[in-house]
């Protein structure tokens, strides 16, 4: 069937459904809101699914159920609510001619309800013997083909409501997401962290090196920015005495789209006074191990590797039950590039030569630390499959992290990787206001030199530090990427309910 033929057929079905709706309007029966169910389909399956036919008859369970029609098998109609599915039995001997005519007019996608006794078929399926069928919502558009489902990836993202209706795997992914966020909040609050909310609209975007989205506030007559991170506000709270604080936050970064990047994304950031980055690595390892067990029921996280045709090539296991590996940036480069030695990386000229040999484009303004990180990202990051902490990031690329006491070239910072993806970033915070001011000035110089991602100078934050921030460690975890891992999803768009998409050609948004 061609696209044009399919569209003609769909338009015909829509016209037929609209005619049915018009008849309901004339009878005053369109979109009623007086039915109240008393049980969910999934609850019935869990409570009575294992009981035999006679047991259920003897119990005489009377229920009120409602849901969307997913299948019509003649005598049996399958409905679905958010918890699962159950069958409705069209009892031709018990229903009136008027009720049977109404049921016959139902279409796939309609939302219906009934009261009746619960039974089990000879095949072992639960069903409700309909006594008072009701049509609650007439669906004017048909559902996707019941065999093909919603197979088009772009359609899944643009019409997520259809994806959730017809694809059980999608629903499971977002149930995992919800459970994971719930458990992270529980874990931290049990450890006496206080949840906070910080501004999304900021005069100075700070807390990360990223290009912000700009906007304008009419009443204040000032330029403003959507936040790229809540970090500097959360650390102000540490100054104010909230010694353990966290926020589950939406961030906005004006950057490209990819399987790992969406301009609007979710993170959790948390800060703990009188702690360092080693303490947070320990906390992170314990929390992620507990999350895997709590959310997935196991400390082994299973992911599939697929080819370009979406065929499974192999299954990989990430073991959160074993101690996480820890190595420095420099050691990891040497480990995964065994032809290199420290002398290849201990001077800017030598590191530039290594980068050139690897085909890494460089900027004249970059120092040794930035070049080392470019080599790390090119040759190491994708190889960090099992849970791994990478530590001692160069100061040049860590403008908010505390310098290492023994080696000021690096900071007390880590990033956490699994499956070749960065999941978390944490460090001992810089609480020296003069050092922080110097680093802000360096960032301003880089911005003036053309780096759109360099930070602004935040004078108010410096003033806050001058009031005294205790020794503190902080961390951010990318929730979207963690959900990708836990749900075995290949793209960040699979774990965001409404990912950003380029407008379709011809749409108003594209004009």
Describe the fold and architecture:
With 511 residues, the chain is of the alpha+beta class. The strands form 4 sheets. An 8-stranded mixed sheet has the order 7-11-12-19-18-17-16-15, sandwiched between helices. The chain has 15 helices and 19 strands. α7 packs across α15 (479-487) and α13 packs antiparallel against α14. It has 2 domains: 3-143, Nucleic acid-binding proteins (OB fold (Dihydrolipoamide Acetyltransferase, E2P)), CATH 2.40.50.140; 164-337 and 380-502, Bira Bifunctional Protein, Domain 2 (BirA Bifunctional Protein, domain 2, 2-Layer Sandwich).
- Computed Rg: 29 Å
| Total of domains | 2
User: Could you say which structural class the secondary elements and strand pairing correspond to?
Assistant: alpha+beta
Number of strands: 19
CATH topology of the largest domain: BirA Bifunctional Protein, domain 2
Helix content, binned percent: 25-40%
| Biggest sheet architecture | 8 strands, mixed
CATH class of the largest domain: Alpha Beta
The number of distinct helices, counting runs of at least 4 residues, comes to 15
CATH architecture grouping of the largest domain: 2-Layer Sandwich
Q: Based on Cα principal axes, name the global outline.
A: elongated
CATH homologous superfamily of the largest domain?
Bira Bifunctional Protein, Domain 2
